[in-house]
Amino acid sequence: MAAALVVAAAEIDPMSTSSSPLGLGIGWRPELAPAIERRADIGFVEILAEDFFLAEAMPAVLERLQQNGVKIVPHGVGLSLGGAEPIDPVRVAALAHLAQLVQAPMVSEHIAFVRANGIETGHLLPVPRTRAMLEILIENIRQAEAELPVPLALENISTLFDWPDAEMDEPAFLSEVLARTEALLLLDIENIYANARNLGGDAVAFLESLPLERIGYVHIAGGREVAGIYHDTHTEAIPEEVFALLEELCARTVVPGVLLERDDRFPDEPALNAEFEAIVGAMHRGQERRLAHEFAHHSA
Amino acid sequence: MATEARQRLTARQAELVRALVARGPVPTRFDARRIAVAARTLVSKRRQTVARVWPSIVKVLGDAYVERFTAYAEAHPLSMSGSPRADGRAFIGWLESHGMSKDELRVEALAFDFRYVETPSGLRLRRGLLVKMVKLQESRSRVIAVRVPWLGERWWGMPRLK
């Protein structure tokens, strides 16, 4: 009996933290490494999974972060889960291996395709929102989940165009994917903002139609407008409208983690820290609204 | 899911991909203006990603980088791995065939070929006994790289690069 209890306890992976909050996060980039290390309240970082597929040991640059309690989430762009072709088992195995190497609480990917018939685009492309696509996508996701040692979080992408003849809107499509798989939602609120701005639609209504309790974590970033089109470049400060959307989200649900993405035109450390403070501020405002609402509800 | 459904959808996805990266026609009922904007965005994103992982290419080409990479990328979709490092390596090959390469890039290309092999699932590290050579032009010499398992690697003939 005692031995069985010891075995049961040993089977609970101490690094398995999918149920505990991730907190404040940032996409790890070499250019940001010193600023990230100096900030004590970073709970998790994302690494670009494909950049680390050849790593045979825990990369030294990440080891120190991990020793300070920072969790590492591999973020992939190459699985092409939304591709109509079967997924590549070699890529899934590489992601699974990396997840173990960095003791990741989860891995993340996108609801998108990146290649077809042997042509690579190096870019996350939207999938047609049809029943037929949905069935294929769900089958691909389940196959990936079966091979991964940790939960998979899936991100909604930004796109400059849409497929014609959609049979459902994006929240309905995402909701069905989540309902029929084990996947968590990596909710990118800047992508929702970008799509609403470029293609139309109401960003807050979009949030409200999603199963928010399935959020693994949230992405936030800033892009820029060129010739009337907003590009999701991760090169600028976060726009006010995106902070407002984060507040709206936090007014509706408890968010387990928020991660800032910055890929170029890197800010200096004070500017980066100011961005973090603004993220935390928007979260607090939303949280206070939610608590005030719940309190009023209970008192009534 | 039925194989036919996958095949049908693969054909439609491939049509879209060709419109975006291989100058194919815009598939029916897609917004041609938006597809054109997306196609340009894809090229500039590729150019920025290669600049990030191959800073030496940008250093050697200077201001000509944008124009030359754009010409290369518009004629050549990403290679099978989708790896930006492999894309940069292919770009050096394109520069060479257009008489625009430099010794510094020839040596870097050799270093890449010496370490990596490209597969459809990404780059893999080369293993085992290996000998590679490249002829330099500005310094009129050859660089030879040899690796012997357990003993390590050695390079001969490295020029002094400006």
Explain what the structure shows.
- The complex is a heterodimer of chains A (300) and B (162).
- By secondary structure, chain A is an alpha/beta fold.
- Chain A has one domain (21-294): TIM Barrel (Alpha-Beta Barrel), CATH 3.20.20.150.
- Chain A contains 10 helices and 12 strands.
- Chain A has an 8-stranded parallel beta sheet with strand order 3-2-1-12-9-8-7-4. Chain A has a two-stranded antiparallel sheet with strand order 5-6. A two-stranded antiparallel ribbon of chain A has the order 10-11.
- Chain A is globular and about 50 Å long.
- The model of chain A is unreliable at 1-19 (pLDDT under 50).
- Chain B has one domain (31-156).
- Chain B is an alpha+beta fold and 162 residues long.
- Chain B is flat, with a radius of gyration of 19 Å.
- In chain B, a hairpin with a 2-residue loop joins strand 1 (116-119) and strand 2.
- The A-B interface holds A 50, 53-54, 78, 83-86, 88, 90-91, 94, 113-123, 125, 128, 132-133, 135-136, 139, 159-165, 229, 231, 264 and B 1, 5-14, 16-18, 20-22, 28-31, 34-35, 37-38, 41-42, 45-46, 48-49, 52, 77-84, 87, 119-125.
Give a quick precis of the structure.
The complex is a heterodimer of chains A (300) and B (162). Chain A is an alpha/beta fold.
Question: Which key terms come to mind for this protein?
Answer:
heterodimer; A: 300 residues; alpha/beta; TIM Barrel; 8-stranded parallel beta sheet; 12 strands; B: 162 residues; alpha+beta; 3-stranded antiparallel beta sheet; two-stranded antiparallel ribbon; 6 helices; 53% helix; flat
